[in-house]
């Protein structure tokens, strides 16, 4: 009897495992096809200068367009893309798109425009990222200082030496380096000083928790801002949704912010209209 139960639960377990493995396998196949057919779009979310209210740049964020027209958010497929290595060509495609777009916008007169793309830590193992980036910039004709790469600290820690090497070379080209989701990993001052970082992005979870008092969000946000000031780094606060957060961030010297308060990530046509309007600071007194 016991044996039978054991066997049943074992086959149920393998059935479940099989189902998940099958799902993953078919997702991987779909992703491969999507990459071949370029079934992705890049959306742009403004990074706003908190003093002038002007759009200082944008973060490029990928979306997958399924054949049935549905738009899949990156959270649903980036993990599989990471596991399979498909994230490497995907990231490079996003970079190419974003760089080409930045050149078009530059020709339209928005010369200070900066665009940043997210990079998986996978690139640090492949070896030729720097050459690829250089090639993309040269072919498009974008000054390297108008491109930024966003990397997360957790991913960096996995392959620190390779990361330091690659990021130093990218930085040598003039590309800016942003540390994404900052505060959520195991940061240490020692490694911060070893990396050629330009910008810290305060993770959304802390911004969400800003109360104007002494919540964890307030303490961490203030801490990151003073750390950045001491290290000569700039800061972008992520996930800003209220004027209360803006007021707090400005009061503590945060230069840039990004979040739904200003705009969600937008298709390039809509994004273009947005920055043509000039200041996008919400005029409403929402708190
Ligand atoms: P991330 O790089 O930290 O990007 C910020 C995410 O926060 C975006 O989600 C953005 O839409 C969202 N966000 C921005 N402002 C707000 C806000 O005010 N409230 C809330 N609730 N959310 C806000 P998205 O586009 O779904 O991207 C999720 C993550 O997927 C990104 O986090 C990034 O880690 C990854 N990702 C996106 N595009 C790429 C890519 O091209 N390559 C790689 N490797 N990863 C990517
Ligand atoms: Mg990012
Ligand atoms: Mg982030
Ligand atoms: Mg994030």
Automatic annotation (TrEMBL):
Residues 24-279 form the EAL domain. This is Diguanylate cyclase (GGDEF)-like protein/PAS domain S-box-containing protein. The chain holds residues 747 to 1033 of 1033 of the full protein.
């Amino acid at each position: 009897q016991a044996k039978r139960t054991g066997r049943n639960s074992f086959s149920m377990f393998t059935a479940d495992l099989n189902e998940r493995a099958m799902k993953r396998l078919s997702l991987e196949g779909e992703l491969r096809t999507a990459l071949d057919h370029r079934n992705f779009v890049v959306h742009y979310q403004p990074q706003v200068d908190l003093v002038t209210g002007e759009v200082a740049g944008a973060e490029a964020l990928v979306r997958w367009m399924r054949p049935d027209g549905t738009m899949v958010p990156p959270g649903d497929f980036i993990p599989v893309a990471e596991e399979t290595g498909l994230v490497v060509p995907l990231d490079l495609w996003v970079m190419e798109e974003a760089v080409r777009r930045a050149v078009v916008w530059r020709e339209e007169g928005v010369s200070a425009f900066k665009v940043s793309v997210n990079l998986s830590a996978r690139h640090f193992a492949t070896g030729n990222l720097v050459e690829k980036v250089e090639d993309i910039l040269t072919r498009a004709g974008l000054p390297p200082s108008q491109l930024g790469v966003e990397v997360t600290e957790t991913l960096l820690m996995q392959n620190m030496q390779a990361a330091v090497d690659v990021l130093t070379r990218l930085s040598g080209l003039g590309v800016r380096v942003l540390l994404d989701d900052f505060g959520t990993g195991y940061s240490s001052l020692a490694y911060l000083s070893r990396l050629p970082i330009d910008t810290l992005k305060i993770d959304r979870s802390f911004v969400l928790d800003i109360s104007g008092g002494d919540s964890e969000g307030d303490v961490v946000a203030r801490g990151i801002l003073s750390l950045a000031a001491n290290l000569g780094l700039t800061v972008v606060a992520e996930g800003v949704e209220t004027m209360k957060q803006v007021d707090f961030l400005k009061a503590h010297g945060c230069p840039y912010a990004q979040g739904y308060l200003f705009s969600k990530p937008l298709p390039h046509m809509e994004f273009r209209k947005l920055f043509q309007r000039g200041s996008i600071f919400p005029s409403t007194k929402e708190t």
